[in-house]
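Researcher: Here's the sequence for the chain we discussed earlier.
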Amino acid sequence: MIPSQVYVRVLQFSGEEAVTAGQGAAVLLQFPDVQRLVTARHLTNGEHDEYVNLRAPFISDGKWFQLFLSRAGNIRADVDVALYDLPRPIIPPESYPLTYGFDDAVYTQDVFLLGHPYGLSLQLDPIQGLDLPLTKRGILAGSKDTDQGHLVFVDSIANPGFSGGPAVFKIAGTEQWKCMGIIKGQYMQDAPTSDGTPASKMPAGITAVTTIDSTLAKLGLI
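Model: Thanks. This is the structure I predict for it:
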């Protein structure tokens, strides 16, 4: 079972370029000197400053709220992750601890993807707005260093709306959970056709995740 310190950190995310609210997800991570909102860069406007719309359980009664935030690090770096410095923490830094990193992950172990595909959620209480992100379980199938950072490949389909959400795992032999990275998206393949018509695209069953560690290096934050 995924613990509360993971769920309370996942938000629905909508940037300035969004067509509709709730286009993706984001996660709150605590760094040594600041709490940051972390999401996929392709969900943002690509600029240093942006109005972002957020929605999360236990925050603002579950209603959408807007913040004007600034990106951290080199925003032109070729990595599909965006970090926003928060002027003040959204959740208390000492509460709901969740560390980040890929070093404790073991290949073929379970990895959990959290997000709001198509704006959907797990509704616990419609009156109080307690809507948790949807969760998918996959297997850590592989990884690769690329020009866009270190990518982890999870054997799972991340539907639209999972982008920007966290991929988390439990360290083997412990009760400690970590965020290994941010969901980039799923690989697509041509769907087979029998009549010679142009092939449509279908999910290939593999989701790419950009690790937090490689993101910090690409952005010049470590």
